Structures are given as C-alpha cells and as structure tokens.
Amino acid sequence: LVAVPTDTVYGVACLAQDSAAVRGIYSLKGRDGAKPLAICLGDVERLYRYCRVNVPDQLLRDLLPGPVTLVLQRSEELNKDLNPFTSLVGVRIPDHPFLRDLARACPGPLALTSANISSQGSTLTVLEFQDLWPQLSLVVDGGPIGDIQSPECRLGSTVVDLSVSGKFSIIRPGCALTPTVEILKKKYGLVPASP
Fold first, then answer.
1. CA-CA distance, 11 to 3, in Å (whole number)?
2. Which member of 39, 80, 99, 149 lies 3.0 to 4.6 Å from 109 by CB, making a disulfide possible if both were Cys?
3. CA–CA distance, 181 with 175 (Å, rounded to integer)
4. Which pTM does this prediction carry?
5. Which helix or strand (DSSP H or E) is residue 20 part of?
6. Closest to 135 in 3D by CA, of 12, 51, 40
7. Which residues of 121-160 are buried (b: 16+ CB within 10 A; e: fewer)?
8. Could you give all domains of the chain from N- to C-terminal order, each with its CATH number?
9. What pLDDT digit, counting tens, does each position of 145-156 carry?
10. How far, CA to CA in Å, does 111 sit from each of 152, 169, 188?
11. Alpha-carbon distance 187 to 98, whole Å?
C-alpha cells in the first residue's frame, strides 16, 4: 500500500489484481466492505482492457485525464475480489504526471482511494494522514495539492456513472461537476438518468 499525490487529493494505491493488497486498503481505512474501490490507469487506451465501454472514445478523452471518475461495466480481466458485489467499476486517470507514470509502470490497474480513515476529510498534504504512515510501505510527498484553505479542493473527483447507454448519473458531485455535465450534455447529448 502506497500513498500517492493525485490531481485532487492524496490517495492510497495498491495493485488491483492483488487480492491481499485490496483487503489491506479496506483494513487500513476502516472502510465498509460494500463500498467499491476505483481503479487507476495511466492512459485511456488501457481502460478498454478492464471495462466495457459504451460511449465514444472522444468522450473518454474529453474527461480523462482529469478530476473525474467514470463508472463503467467491468470486464472479465479485472480481479474478481475487487468490488465482487457489483458489475461496475470506477476508473480514474488523474491529471498528475507522477501517478500516470506509476500506473503505466504497473502490470495491471491500481486500486485507488483517498488517503484518510473512512468518513474523515480528504487530505491535501502528507502530514494530514500521518496516522496511516506506519501501515504504508511508501509515502510519496508531492507537496500540498490545490489550495489547502479551500473546502472545494477536498471534494475529490466528480464520479459519473456512464454504464447505461445514452445516460449519465452523478454519484458524487466532486470538484469538476459543472464542466463534466456540460461536456456530457452539450457535446454528447447524454441525458441524466432518472433517480
């Protein structure tokens, strides 16, 4: 388990195909076992291996890399122990050079979640999660992320479900809600899924 800077908040990552490491993230965070973990990739091209994509490639490239998590149908390639309770998976390609290089260097996707105890605030500096350090193999200090005085900076990525063709639903507003919805509606004509 390693702590890494992202384009939104600090995260904890491990190899998504390593079931013991995935269990370790839940244990580290005290996270509810029914809350899914996202996967992190270095490039849009790799997304097709782990997800069934039902939107235009250009839509993916308009939103990724960036502060957005896209929820899609998972493929058979993904570790069965990662979010075994759902056929969906959130995919993140952060707009952060170090994390993208790290993801490219790994043989498979990274599992990624925020570096904090579940239900506590997201972290923008490594000192804010120092209570987790003893349980981490490595802490990569990328300096402060965003404006640490601004509450908006702690919102994390905007999570949008694109698993139903022609529709989208916002799972978490996050920090990029307005531009994300604008791209989905105006450029691609997707409509909000009824609640």
1. 6
2. 39
3. 12
4. 0.96
5. helix 19-29
6. 12
7. ebbbbbebbeebeeebeebbebeebbeeeeeebbbbbbbb
8. 2-150 (3.90.870.10)
9. 988 888 788 999
10. 24, 22, 29
11. 30
